[in-house]
Design goal:
With 212 residues, the protein is an all-alpha fold. It has helices at 2-24, 30-56, 83-87, 91-103, 106-115, 124-152, 172-204. α1 runs parallel beside α6. The longest helix has 33 residues, at 172-204.
Length: 212
């Protein structure tokens, strides 16, 4: 546990430094700014993966097959299926997709944070700590994206809203299962966010598609 705290503290400080560098300086170039938000999104996805592994270590196998990705609340958002498709999407549209995906997790992350301390799971304290970091990193990335939007000159209104049902169930096992599923949806979407930002970074650097 102490080792994780040390690693988590360093990761948090790194994200804060990245954001400060991105938001405080108007002189930051587009390529550098995209590099920095890409690093933040990479940290966000890594943390969601780590948290998923913590849950999986004591999760009944049956629960893992009860839900499908198409049941995630963000499945209504039309997103590219792979890098080749993402490379064909206009930059403004791809940035709007990233922001829509991130915004769609504002309320669900708050629900996960509220639920984490009450989970029937032996690692619930660690899960709560990492869930709190997820929310903090998500907010950090959101602020960085707002600065990116300003830099690129796109409208801050180009975001799709996604409805979310915050009912995790009535009994403790159902709530654990739905917590697990909701987190798996976030991990999936954080990977999309990270991938799309890397495509935007690649374009800003004017790299050939095969180099992205």
């Amino acid at each position: 546990m102490p080792a994780y705290r040390s690693k988590g503290t360093k990761l948090h400080l790194a994200v804060v430094v990245l954001l400060c560098m991105a938001v405080s300086s108007e002189a930051v170039g587009m390529t550098d700014l995209l590099e920095r938000v890409s690093q933040i999104s990479d940290n966000l996805h890594s943390l969601s993966t780590s948290l998923s592994n913590d849950l999986n270590s004591h999760f009944h196998p049956i629960g893992k097959f009860m839900m499908r990705p198409s049941m995630c609340h963000t499945s209504s958002l039309q997103t590219p299926n792979d890098k080749d498709q993402a490379l064909r999407v206009p930059e403004s549209e791809l940035l709007s997709l990233v922001r829509s995906l991130l915004l769609a997790w504002s309320d669900p992350l708050a629900v996960l944070l509220t639920e984490a301390p009450n989970l029937v799971h032996p690692e619930k304290s660690l899960i709560y700590s990492k869930t709190k970091q997820l929310q903090e990193h998500s907010n950090t990335l959101g602020a960085g994206l707002e600065h990116l939007v300003h830099k690129m000159g796109h409208s801050s209104q180009d975001i799709s809203s996604v409805p979310f049902n915050n009912d995790l169930g009535n009994d403790k096992n159902s709530r654990l299962t739905n917590f697990h599923f909701l987190l798996s949806c976030f991990r999936r979407d954080s990977h999309k966010i990270d991938s799309f930002l890397k495509v935007l970074r690649c374009r800003a650097a004017k790299l050939r598609p095969e180099m992205c």
